[in-house]
Every structure is written in C-alpha cells, then in structure tokens.
Amino acid sequence: MGKLRLHTNENRFSHAYLTELNHHYRDSLENIINYPNSISDELANTIAAYHGIQPESIYFGNGLDEVIATLVLLFSREGDRIIYPEKTFCAYQESVKLFHRIPIVCRMSNFRIDMEDLLSCIKQGAKMVFVCNPHNPTGTALNENEIRTIMEACEQYHTILVIDEAYVDYYCETVDMHRVTHSPYLFMLRTFSKFYSMSGLRLGYAVSSPENIKKLHTIKQALPYNINHIAQQLACKIFRIMNRSRKTILDEFFTSKKYLYDQLDLLGIPYIKSFANFVTVDLQRDTEPIMNILDEQYHILVRSCNTWNMKTYMRITIGTIKEMNAFICALKKVLCI
C-alpha cells in the first residue's frame, strides 16, 4: 500500500493533466545518449515568452537548492554577511554555512517576517538577503508594498535581494518582472517542484538582469550539463499543460483548502492562515508521536516543524478533498476526538 504524501508540498491535483506526457517521455528517451543542451535555450524561450521577458534573464539549476548555492558562491565572498529569516527554508542557512559566510538571522513576528527587524539588518550592512514569499514553513506572505519597501532598502544599501517564490502559484505575483530584469540587486527564484509537479526531475530557475545571469552562467565551466535532457524536454511540455489548466487546478485546490480549514475549525485545531499549498497546524502538544502513528498505522506522511523549533506544529500539504478527509479521519482517531 502506497503512503499518502502530505509532507513535501507536491501538487496533488496535477495527475489528470499530465497523462498526455507519455508519448513526450518516449520521445525524450530517444535522445538520452546525447549530452543535453547546456543552456536549456528551448526551455528559456518558453518561460521567457510566458513572463514577457528576454531568455537572457533566466538561469536554470538542478533544483532551487543548486541555484541558491550558486548565488551565494558567485555573488558573495567568505566572511560576507547574508540575511535570512528565522524559521525558513533550510537551503539558505546550509549554503551560508557551506561557503563560510556570516549568517544574520532576522526575527519572525506572528509567523511573518518582522519587517522592522529585517530593514534594520539591511541598514547594518549585508551582501545578500533571502526572503521566501510565501514563507515556508508558515505559509504567510508579504504584500506588494512590503516587498517594494525591502527592494528599495536593498537598492539603497547595495544589497542583493533574492526573493524565493517557490509557492507563488498559490498566491499572486508581488514583483514586477520588468523591474527584476533591470535591477542589479534583485533575483527572483521559481521552481518546477511545486505547482508544476516536477520534484523528481529537479529543476528551478532564477530571473534577474542579463548581466547577473551572465555571471551565473560562469558556473557552467564546472557544471556544464547540470540540467538533464529529460527535465528540459518535459518541462517545456509541462509548463504549457499546467498553465493551460491553471484555473481548473487552482479552483479544485482552493475548494480543498477551504474544506481542510473548515474541518480544522470544527475540531478546534488552530492553524496558520496559508498563502501556499500547505497548512501548518498547532496540535498544542509534541507532534512526533502523532506523526509516527499517522505514518505507521494510517500510512499518511506529514512534516514535523521541529526543524524550525516549532515542536507542537506540523505542516500538511493540501491534497484533494478525498485525501484531506483521509487525513482528518486519521487525525481524529489519533487524537481521540
């Protein structure tokens, strides 16, 4: 029996739309004896046309983890200060530690980035700032005005701002693409792992000015073929399919999200209102034993928030209503509600 994966924020609504990929996959396999296109130009053209930007403003990595590590490596030096929030995506911290940069951790307040503290950190000087929006693992989001304020502060103090929008498809765009591609201090990150259902093929990308992207491409001297052929070929097809089906997928997603909220409300379980494709709930007790029972007895995987020192919280990927019902029924039994 397969397990219900509600722990890694994959898209639970895409299967019906990706069935047409079967013949594309067979076509892609025919070319695996050849090295892949090192600059992924077909994929760059596809995404650039959708966003209304130039393909020279896009850089691809083997997942966003690689893009983040490459940014830290190429746009800062050992001993530089790099800002990121507490309780955030671990890749920022890991890259800062790996390359011997100095971490500056700004506070969270009510599960949101503390704007006052973040701006204070920027004013004190830093080479780079990472902001995840919507935020992982809380699901909270900064609005357009807050993002603009952070951008202006970074430009004033010559600090590079990296806005990680891995979950933006479930929220709304807060950064004007034209500004992203014309600023020397701004990078925007996107991924194929969440909305586009390509976690297993590892593909993420950065958008910035052509000058910044050209510098990113210097890493190709060491990683000339970091994006494999199948990922490139399928991504072009998946990008078109999922955007064509976007409204239908999101309608189903928001219906399911409301269902989960309603069920949590009926059970009196607090949760953080989310702008991503997951909800973080507070069980007001240690979640580890509960997660173990959900896994071992009910074959349901959810994410512990112990990593972020939130021991009473767990993060649940929003799935179909059937999947959310299965989770709620299992949780009720575990909690004896």
Overview of the structural elements:
With 337 residues, this protein is an alpha/beta fold. The protein has 2 domains: 4-13 and 246-335, Alpha-Beta Complex (Aspartate Aminotransferase, domain 1); 34-244, Aspartate Aminotransferase, domain 2 (3-Layer(aba) Sandwich). Helices cover 41% and strands 17% of the residues. It has helices spanning 22-29, 41-51, 64-75, 90-98, 115-123, 144-156, 177-180, 210-216, 229-244, 246-267, 288-298, 321-335, and strands at 4-6, 58-61, 81-85, 102-106, 108-109, 112-113, 128-132, 160-164, 186-191, 204-207, 271-272, 278-282, 300-304, 313-317. The protein has a 7-stranded mixed sheet with strand order 2-10-9-8-7-3-4, with helices on both faces. The longest helix has 22 residues, at 246-267. The mean pLDDT is 94.
Short key terms for the protein model shown above:
337 residues; alpha/beta; Aspartate Aminotransferase, domain 1; Aspartate Aminotransferase, domain 2; 2 domains; 12 helices; globular
List strands and helices in order, with pairings:
Blueprint lengths: L3 E3 L15 H8 L11 H11 L6 E4 L2 H12 L5 E5 L4 H9 L3 E5 L1 E2 L2 E2 L1 H9 L4 E5 L11 H13 L3 E5 L12 H4 L5 E6 L12 E4 L2 H7 L12 H16 L1 H22 L3 E2 L5 E5 L5 H11 L1 E5 L8 E5 L3 H15 L2
Parallel strand pairs: 1-13, 3-4, 3-7, 7-8, 8-9
Antiparallel strand pairs: 2-10, 5-6, 9-10, 11-12, 12-14, 13-14
Helix pairs in contact: 1-9, 2-9, 3-4, 5-6, 10-12, 11-12
Q: What is this structure, in a nutshell?
A:
This protein has helices spanning 22-29, 41-51, 64-75, 90-98, 115-123, 144-156, 177-180, 210-216, 229-244, 246-267, 288-298, 321-335, and strands at residues 4-6, 58-61, 81-85, 102-106, 108-109, 112-113, 128-132, 160-164, 186-191, 204-207, 271-272, 278-282, 300-304, 313-317. It is of the alpha/beta class and 337 residues long. Helix 1 runs antiparallel to helix 9 and helix 10 (246-267) runs parallel beside helix 12.
